């Protein structure tokens, strides 16, 4: 494998016309490389997460399996695969077995449109450092994420357990709520880049990254990707304190390992998508790219891409070791009453600025007026929420609590007959 040099470096940015021309052996090699990269990232992420959180909690973390405990993730994977597979008797067996596959497969497919680098030379064949690309590649990522929701719902429904069913319902409501806000945060990127192709979005950030131009969209995406991943502080579908373990309560052995694998692959995909849309993708940061002419050529961009992705993975781990779980009503309120209205308003602002810029107006003054108006709206909204909270009457002391079932809510019986045994 060699790097592009000379005149080929001028055409390092791939376009949609560069895809679909690779021979079969190169396409297969790329697919295997992406699969291996995700598996290695999952194993390393598990080790890093346990070590970092251990340090945060004044513990050592895994340090027995391999040097510095590096093989702990591999040992856990082998343990899960070799454990006894316990299947409850009354489950829908076909759906129960297929649900983890439906959760895991879309997580791998979504990474296929992520650009890892520019045009490179592989055994003399010029090819983009990306498995494939589409004119609507970002929509493919959203579509695969939506397919993963079906797996979670089917896991909860097929288990024939009230706890798993509640976890599936929570997972559905949470993903729908935050996926809408996530899609809205992409609209501003599409308006600026003029395309939904991931490789062309990276090419559009050759001057300034969108994290600077579209910071509100970046902030919304960071919050929504935490809700989309279902990790602390938004791990309500797994709520151990109230619904035992959520959708995977009845799963064990390799089926549970597949659910675990899908969670970490999804974490990597969300981090890679954020890097692609807002942090310039595989492009080197400003000091390196300005001082070193070849920073964005050859195989070096793969290093910058991995550094950015691991920065987001560390951010996820840091939040898990720092923040407590939020209440479910707070989760829904943040998604429907804060993120979605804010995203819609921001889209209107971005569209207006782009329209005035296309007409030749001075956008600096327009942005100042818009920022002032947005700040005023936020202040008024905050004051209104505070005043409304003070006007709500406090709960009466000694008031009788009405059981949810008596009030007409469809609460599943906690003493429902549920038998376990070998399939």
UniProtKB/TrEMBL annotation:
Transmembrane intervals: 24-48, 94-114, 134-154, 175-195, 207-224, 256-279, 299-318, 338-356, 368-387
Subcellular location: Cell membrane; Membrane
InterPro entries tied to this protein: NADH_UbQ_OxRdtase_su1/FPO, NADH_UbQ_OxRdtase_su1_CS
Pfam families per the UniProt record, alphabetical: NADHdh
Catalytic activity entry: a quinone + NADH + 5 H(+)(in) = a quinol + NAD(+) + 4 H(+)(out)
Top-level taxon of the source organism: Bacteria
Broad class of the protein's primary localization: membrane
Membrane topology: Multi-pass membrane protein
Annotated EC: 7.1.1.-
Keyword Membrane: yes
Keyword terms, alphabetized: Cell membrane, Membrane, NAD, Quinone, Translocase, Transmembrane, Transmembrane helix, Ubiquinone
UniProt similarity note: Belongs to the complex I subunit 1 family.
NCBIfam families tied to this protein: PRK06076.1-2, PRK06076.1-4
Biological function: NDH-1 shuttles electrons from NADH, via FMN and iron-sulfur (Fe-S) centers, to quinones in the respiratory chain. The immediate electron acceptor for the enzyme in this species is believed to be ubiquinone. Couples the redox reaction to proton translocation (for every two electrons transferred, four hydrogen ions are translocated across the cytoplasmic membrane), and thus conserves the redox energy in a proton gradient. This subunit may bind ubiquinone.
Subunit and interaction comment: NDH-1 is composed of 14 different subunits. Subunits NuoA, H, J, K, L, M, N constitute the membrane sector of the complex.
Protein name (record): NADH-quinone oxidoreductase subunit H
Organism: Actinomadura miaoliensis
Lineage, uppermost ranks: Bacteria, Bacillati, Actinomycetota, Actinomycetes, Streptosporangiales
Encoding gene, per UniProt annotation: nuoH_1
């Amino acid at each position: 494998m060699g790097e592009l040099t000379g005149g080929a470096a001028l055409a390092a940015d791939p376009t949609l016309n560069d895809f679909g021309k690779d021979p079969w052996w190169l396409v297969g090699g790329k697919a295997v490389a992406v699969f291996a990269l995700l598996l290695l990232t999952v194993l390393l992420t598990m080790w890093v997460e346990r070590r970092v959180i251990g340090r945060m909690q004044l513990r050592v973390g895994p340090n027995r399996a391999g040097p510095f405990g590096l093989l702990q993730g591999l040992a856990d994977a082998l343990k899960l695969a070799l454990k006894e597979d316990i299947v409850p008797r009354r489950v829908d067996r076909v759906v129960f077995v297929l649900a983890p596959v439906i959760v895991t497969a879309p997580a791998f497919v979504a990474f296929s449109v992520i650009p890892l680098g520019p045009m490179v030379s592989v055994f003399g064949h010029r090819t983009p450092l990306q498995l494939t690309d589409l004119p609507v590649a970002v929509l493919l990522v959203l579509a695969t994420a939506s397919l993963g929701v079906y797996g979670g719902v089917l896991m909860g429904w097929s288990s024939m357990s009230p706890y798993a069913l509640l976890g599936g319902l929570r997972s559905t409501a949470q993903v729908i709520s935050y996926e809408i806000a996530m899609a809205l945060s992409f609209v501003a990127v599409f308006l600026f880049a003029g395309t939904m192709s991931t490789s062309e979005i990276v090419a559009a950030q050759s001057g300034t990254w969108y994290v600077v131009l579209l910071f509100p969209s970046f902030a919304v995406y960071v919050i929504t990707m935490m809700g989309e991943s279902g990790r602390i502080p938004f791990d309500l579908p797994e709520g151990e304190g109230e619904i035992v373990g959520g959708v995977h309560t009845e799963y064990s052995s390799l089926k549970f390992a597949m659910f675990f694998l899908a969670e970490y692959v999804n974490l990597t995909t969300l981090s890679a998508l954020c890097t692609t849309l807002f942090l310039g993708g595989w492009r080197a940061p400003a000091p390196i790219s300005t001082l070193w002419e070849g920073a964005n050529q050859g195989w070096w961009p793969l290093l910058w891409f991995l550094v950015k992705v691991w920065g987001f993975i560390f951010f996820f781990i840091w939040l898990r070791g720092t923040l407590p779980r939020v209440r479910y009503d707070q989760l829904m309120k943040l998604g429907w009453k804060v993120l979605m209205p804010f995203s819609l308003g921001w889209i209107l602002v971005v569209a207006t600025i782009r329209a005035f810029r296309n007409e030749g107006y001075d956008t600096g003054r327009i942005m100042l007026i818009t920022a002032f108006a947005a700040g005023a709206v936020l202040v008024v909204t905050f004051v209104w929420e505070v005043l409304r909270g003070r006007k709500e009457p406090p709960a009466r002391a000694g008031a009788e609590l009405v059981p949810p079932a008596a009030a007409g809510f469809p609460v599943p019986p906690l003493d429902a007959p549920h038998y376990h045994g070998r399939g």
